[in-house]
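cache lookup: miss for this entity combination. No prior model stored, computing from scratch. Input as submitted by user K.M.:
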Amino acid sequence: MGSRVEKETPLRRDARRNREMLIAAAREIYSDQGVDAPLDDIARRAGVGSATLYRRFAGRAELIEAVFGDSLRDILRAAEEARSAPDAWAGLTAYLERIFGLLAADRGTNDLMTTGIQGVPSLDALRAENHKTLDVLLRRAQQQGAARPDVTAEDLQFLLAALGRAVPGSTVAAPLAWRRYLALLLDGLRPEGSHPLPAPSLTSDQLGAAMLQLGKVRRPRTGRAD
Amino acid sequence: MGSRVEKETPLRRDARRNREMLIAAAREIYSDQGVDAPLDDIARRAGVGSATLYRRFAGRAELIEAVFGDSLRDILRAAEEARSAPDAWAGLTAYLERIFGLLAADRGTNDLMTTGIQGVPSLDALRAENHKTLDVLLRRAQQQGAARPDVTAEDLQFLLAALGRAVPGSTVAAPLAWRRYLALLLDGLRPEGSHPLPAPSLTSDQLGAAMLQLGKVRRPRTGRAD
DNA sequence: CACTAACCGGGGGAATCTCTCCGGTTAGTG
DNA sequence: CACTAACCGGAGAGATTCCCCCGGTTAGTG
């Protein structure tokens, strides 16, 4: 993986152009179909052969990194910013609303944030930042009496992934339905009328394992002969 | 798809035996891997050729029906029973706990109840009964002041599917973690400290479409969505 | 115990997807 | 404008999975 010196051999103009076309095509297709979309589809959409795709990117993870690197960095910055809200609950709400908006708008971003995709450096950074943000805001909200004290950042991450994963389904018919479910989730996090939670929260490692599983869902086929 | 069952031609003994072996094998494999497991795997586990499987069952849906018919009928009865609880909230809680227990224990049942698999008659009956149960219990709980008035049965079904879909992931590392998340969800449904919900609830049709999407991870056929 | 309709498993075609090989083409330079 | 290293796309190998065809086998009957 050590191709740290790409600068000394600049790509020829046609190669560079194809690389851009591939990234643009991947961005569109990922947005519609998610990051599991066939790589051949992406190559075709870019108007190049599949060999060219594999020549420019070692595999799916590297293409994802190229496509989402920038937008993930944007989210990262938003997370950092959210942490500075004086009213922690308001900050948490705004942050989650922003995240859900992204999950609803782009299937690829959704896959990235709700499953345990491995091998994308920017994604690891985002996950760490996301955890930190939720942890900080939740703790502060708890101190401020706005959030129930027995809920953890891992709980929030799990629920975010679980709900987020379902969002694209509802988005087809009702683009803004996610607001309703996020509001319901948030109300469950408030201290008023809360009942003690059973079972311990997931550990960070357990959460990672759970999210890895979330991605491994293959589609059930039921009607084959149509 | 008129599969008029001809009871007048009873299966030969070897054929009947193979049929039972196939159902038993499918039950085990579905439980581990979900209902999208390769049919060839099931045939191999049953010790027969794949042709035998296709000879006994028209396709995946018919095998699912044969495997889960009985257990689905059990759930159906439990639903009917839950509706008669005097304390609607207690009934609702008990019902959801029962459902989540099943979703956590069996991946096949999970697929059946959290996605929009088509072509399985028992499943359609179960979905109808499930909706009715949630609707009745929720309304009664609202009248009794135990549930917030602005939540609908469709909301509950959506959240049930969304959370249920994520349960198997957490089950690997922490078998009882789902209790925690169900408790959190339930607290969000209580009237104390609830805030008005934005956006309208999904309609029944929209919910159906959303659940259909939950199962589909990959793109449809060549070209358009079906 | 012989007969035959029903049954059986393996093998293979078709579709899909990942990744590589190879002969032809082109960008950039002297 | 000629040269060549870099680049290109199509074709295809290999894997996976659904589904059916075909020649051999067996359960049940007279």
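stored under new cache key. The longest helix of chain A spans residues 60-82.
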